[in-house]
Automatic annotation (TrEMBL):
HAMAP family: IspE. It catalyses: 4-CDP-2-C-methyl-D-erythritol + ATP = 4-CDP-2-C-methyl-D-erythritol 2-phosphate + ADP + H(+). Residues 66-141 form the GHMP kinase N-terminal domain. It comes from Sphingomonas morindae. Residues 203-263 form the GHMP kinase C-terminal domain. The active site is at residues 9, 136. InterPro entries: GHMP_kinase_C_dom, GHMP_kinase_C_sf, GHMP_kinase_N_dom, IspE, Ribosomal_Su5_D2-typ_SF, Ribsml_uS5_D2-typ_fold_subgr. ATP binds at residues 94-104. This is 4-diphosphocytidyl-2-C-methyl-D-erythritol kinase.
Length: 279
């Protein structure tokens, strides 16, 4: 059996620059990834099949529309093979939550199945396959901090040592937000580029998530979640990720993160939360 993790993705900053003729938007984003995520494993089998379990597995289709099976089909087609696999997805991340979810699962499926089927795809070919599955999938394939430009799929490597191991808390007020409608609610105002350079935390802190305001217009509770995180002691950065509704905070220490987690759990017992670190 081969297993891997669909690591939770964060957008430490996300600047939306312009709407494109193809319906997408040009972005400048700083991606980071958490140590935790969805579990994904595969064993040899005659046909391709997907079993879903885990706290967020209920209600998620295990049919050909699932991004795991779309990734498997794309990899098989590109390799010109008809191999099978019994794939198991342990869905631990909320769905439609701005933290990769399906994109992280698709990327993990590409990594796992390339190993199971002993394919040695060219890295560029795998990245192109990933981009065809979704704008976030190439970044999730790397699952390392990087800058994303164009649709978010043109990746620029960054020196991420300073971020690695940073304690992080994710909270989701349990409202699903769909990415397309949040982009469509963006006001069209270009608020300027994301800074460049190696001081990633300073760049993130000086940046913004331009999807936060439109997501809050659609789901006002997101403002409560960002404010609850920002009010905690030891917070370095508190913001919404992606198109929401998950919000995250980076902390000075794991003790500060754990204290924040306890406070938020007491104040908002219905919210999902995850205490982890950046990888
Ligand atoms: C918001 C982010 O999560 C930030 O990392 C991503 O940009 C979204 O990535 P994703 O979920 O992989 O997005 P896709 O599945 O490719 O696109 C879903 C929908 O989001 C909108 N979309 C996505 C990415 C982008 N750069 N511009 C867009 O306008 C489009 O309406 C698209 O139809
Ligand atoms: N394996 C999967 N996990 C989660 N969602 C999936 C999966 N496969 C297909 N989907 C569909 O993809 C949609 C988006 O879910 P996902 O969790 O990827 O969103 P997201 O967290 O907003 O992602 P992103 O941060 O990349 O925008 C959902 O409506 C869901 O039905």
């Amino acid at each position: 059996m081969i297993d891997d993790v669909g690591y939770a993705k964060l957008n430490l900053a996300l600047h939306v620059r312009r709407r494109r003729p193809d319906g997408y938007h040009d972005l400048e984003t700083l991606f980071a990834f958490c140590e935790a995520g969805d579990g994904l494993s595969a064993e040899p089998a005659d046909t391709l099949g997907l079993t879903i379990e885990g706290p967020f597995g209920a209600g998620l289709s295990a049919g050909p529309d699932n991004l795991v099976l779309r990734a498997a089909a794309a990899l098989r087609a590109a390799a010109g093979i008809d191999a099978g696999a019994a794939i198991r997805l342990d869905k631990r991340l909320p769905v439609a939550a701005g933290i990769g979810g399906g994109s992280a699962d698709a990327a993990a499926a590409l990594r796992v199945l390339a190993r199971l089927w002993t394919l040695a795809p060219d890295a560029a070919d795998l990245r192109a396959l990933a981009a065809g599955l979704g704008a976030d999938v190439p970044a999730c394939l790397e699952s390392r901090s990087c800058r994303g430009e164009a649709r978010g799929d043109a990746l620029v490597p960054v020196a991420d040592e300073a971020l690695r191991g940073t304690p992080v808390l994710l909270v989701n007020p349990r409202v699903p937000t769909l990415t397309g409608p949040v982009f469509r609610a963006w006001d069209g105002v270009d608020r300027g580029p994301l800074a460049t350079g190696d001081a990633l935390l300073a760049i993130a802190r000086a940046g913004r998530n331009d999807l936060e305001a439109p997501a809050i217009r659609l789901e006002p509770v997101i403002a409560t979640a960002v404010a609850a995180l920002a009010a905690c002691a030891g917070v370095v950065l508190a913001r919404m990720s992606g198109s929401g509704a998950t919000c995250f905070a980076l902390f000075e220490s794991s003790a500060a993160r754990d204290a924040a987690a306890a406070t938020i759990a007491a104040d908002h017992p219905g919210w999902w939360q995850l205490a982890t670190r950046l990888r």
